[in-house]
Write a structure and sequence with these properties.
Blueprint (H helix, E strand, L loop, with lengths): L1 H9 L15 H8 L5 H12 L1 H6 L2 H8 L3 H10 L5 H15 L3 H4 L8 H18 L3 H12 L5 E5 L4 H12 L5 E3 L4 H9 L6 E5 L6 H12 L3 E6 L12 E4 L4 E2 L2 E2 L2 H17 L1 H18 L6
Parallel strand pairs: 1-2, 1-3, 3-4, 4-5
Antiparallel strand pairs: 6-7
Helix pairs in contact: 1-2, 1-3, 3-5, 3-6, 5-6, 9-14, 10-14, 11-14
Amino acid sequence: MAAAMALLRAGCRHDGPMAPEQRSTLDDRLAARSAELTPAERRVAEVVAAHRELVAFGTVAELARRAGASGASVIRLSDRLGYRGFRAMQDAVRSELTTQLRPAREKIRRPIPGDLIASVGDSAAESVRRTFDQIDPLQLERVAELIAQRRRRVLVVAGDAGAGIGRQVVTHLSMLRDGVESVAGGSVAAGRQLAGTRQGDVLLCIDLPRHDRDVVRVAELARARAAAVVAIVDSPLSPLAEGAEAVFPVESHDVGPFDSYVGVLALSEALVAATARRLRSTAAERLDEMERIWDDLGAIGPT
């Protein structure tokens, strides 16, 4: 929600005012009209800014309930932003989401920005900032506490695009404690790992749209076996978020034809760091022993 508030405070970034109906995105319209919103409309706007899927696929009543406002406030916000009612705003948000979810074969045909390095760098920095604005510190510490309890087995499953980040999380956590594994890609191997899942074990899921069905299915099976599912996803309305012990929404952007996982990587590193802080004393001894073995094996070159 902090990201939404920052957006609303940002105001118009253009040299002169523009009518919201001339703007192409919901973010621009929110920024242009933020100073005009009533307290009730502002609460709705915060939800609209933070939860696009709720706007795209929910109802006026659901949006009002989430914002703690009335249905009339939802309608008034739609009108104030230059839409012809809630349905028009909903259609616009659906269109934006459709653009974001277009496959790589379509994205690669879009115009290329003139300053590619600046464009990618700015987008990456904004994704990390918005991701960290949404982190609930208490939730992060609660999940770190779960992962730090060595009696709990920790499994990590990621979609194909996030598999590298999943492997890094496993590598780092396994240097802090035993019992950390990646869920194998094949159904047979995944089934073998899930068969050993006990109540209270932790399954960390990493995936962004378009979602990998195998990851969603693994999360469903883990929940059925009373595992604590932690979801790093694009939205609290993600299929991986349903029934999860904790949900960490991340911001994403396009890098050419592909979705960026820089926000996912940054959040994963924060979670590993929080876990390391809880395991500091035992992890220090474990890392010392690893260093001695690596030295004996000559595994690490001179620094």
